[in-house]
Amino acid sequence: MATFAKHKQKPSSPGADLLQAPGKLHKSRLLGGAFCFLSACSGIPAGHGPVRLLHQMDANAWTQDADPDDTLVVMDYEVGTRVCGRTLTAAAAAALSANEDAVFGDACGGRVVLVRSSSTPRHQSDWAAIAAHEAFHSAVQYTVLRPRFDSVSFPGYPSLADLPLISSLSVDLATAIQAGNSEGVCTTIDNLMKSSDSVRDYFLYRSYWEWPAEHYMRHSAMKRSSYEEYLGRRASWGGGRGNPLYEVGVLALDQVEARLGRTEWQREYLSGEAPINMLAKANACAPPLPKSFQVDFSATDIFEAAGDG
Ligand SMILES: [Zn+2]
Question: Which residue has the higher pLDDT, 43 or 260?
Fold first, then answer.
């Protein structure tokens, strides 16, 4: 996976705790419901190491429970930097060094999300969007949601050979939704379910976890800005991780929402329905996934036990 490091500055020295050192905290605060990063508001340039900001859940965009209401999101995180005195486990550090954009844990007196430098947008104006997306994973999906058993296990990253099909299924779905072509939506879902195990399982996994997060981001932090312009910028960071499979989630859940209302689809999601099934039902086709029981879910701690750092 290629990374874009132009916005990066010198790496943190090993063991540094920039998040705790006095005078180096870039606290964020909420002003009139919008994020204001102290670093941006006061002219401190970006890229000077980790910057912490607080995402407050938007009760309009997510109508159901969230825990906690405020999530601390650390942008531009470099492996090796301690977080409020805590040290990442080797597994969490390895995950960030490999494919994971962010890891989730408890530190600094609450829930934290660490977004690695290579997945941090170059434009600070996009940080609130990423914070909203990641805070949703942390405060809703990893806490309140009891996920469907069939959607818990990550099936693994797709091979390069699978990417074009994943992409074209996503684009076909988006095109059909935008055209109000229910038959096209149903045909595409059918094609998805008939595709290889690796394509199908990856698509279904991402649609379950990422569609609601992306929809939440779109309707909270990005409610007054252009999603299309954001997508254009997103292609330029994180190795072009912006991909149609995430993007179609906003269209899909907007369509579901137009039919059911926001409160109802979000209730159904928490009750065990999968977004792909909701999309199918909104287009009068058969839900592709059978009913699945829900399981308790707790993420692995990303920090060494206190005192080990
Ligand atoms: Zn995500």
Answer: 260
Distance from residue 134's CA to the centre of ligand 1 (Å): 6
Does the pLDDT of residue 246 top 80, yes or no?
A: yes
Q: Which residues pair with 71 in a beta bridge?
A: 55
Question: Separation of 121 CA from ligand 1 center, angstroms?
Answer: 14
Question: How far apart are the CA of 87 and the centre of ligand 1, in A?
Answer: 23
Name the pLDDT band for 44 (thresholds 50, 70, 90): very low
Residue of 187 and 300 predicted with greater confidence: 187
- Rounded to the nearest 5 degrees, what angle is found at the Cα of 272, between the Cα atoms of 266 and 275? 60
Give distance in angstroms: CA of 152 to centre of ligand 1.
Answer: 14
CA of 22 to the centre of ligand 1 (A): 31
Torsions phi, psi for 243 (to 5 deg): -145, 155
Q: How far is the CA of 11 from the centre of ligand 1 (A)?
A: 25
Closest to 139 measured CA to CA, from 84, 220, 206: 220
Report how far ligand 1's centroid is from the alpha carbon of 110 (Å). 20
Cα of 130 from ligand 1 centre, angstroms? 9
Give residue limits of the domains in the chain.
28-141, 149-282
The pLDDT tens digits for 98-125 are: 989 999 999 988 999 999 998 898 888 8
Read off the pLDDT band of 23 (50, 70, 90). Answer: very low
Ligand 1 center from residue 217 Cα (angstroms): 10
In three-state form (DSSP H/G/I as H, E/B as E, the rest C), the secondary structure along 170-206 is: HHHHHHHHHHCCHHHHHHHHHHHHHCCHHHHHHHHHH
pLDDT tens figures, 174-191: 999 999 999 999 999 999
Instruction: Work out the average pLDDT over 144-155.
Output: 95
Distance between Cα 182 and ligand 1 center (Å): 27
